[in-house]
Amino acid sequence: MKYNQRSGSCFQLGLILTALSVIMIFGLANMAYAEQRGGSGGSHHGQFMDTRYHHDHYYPTRGQYVNALPRDHHAFVHGNGRYHYSGGIWYRPVGRRFMIIAPPLGLVIPFLPPFYTTIWVAGIPYYYANEVYYIQRGAEYVVVDPPQGETDQVPPTAGQMFIYPRQGQSEQKQADDRYECYKWAVNQTSYDPTKQNSNLSEAQLTQKRADYQRAMGACLEGRGYTVK
Question: Are both 129 and 218 inside the same structural domain?
Answer without folding.
Answer: no
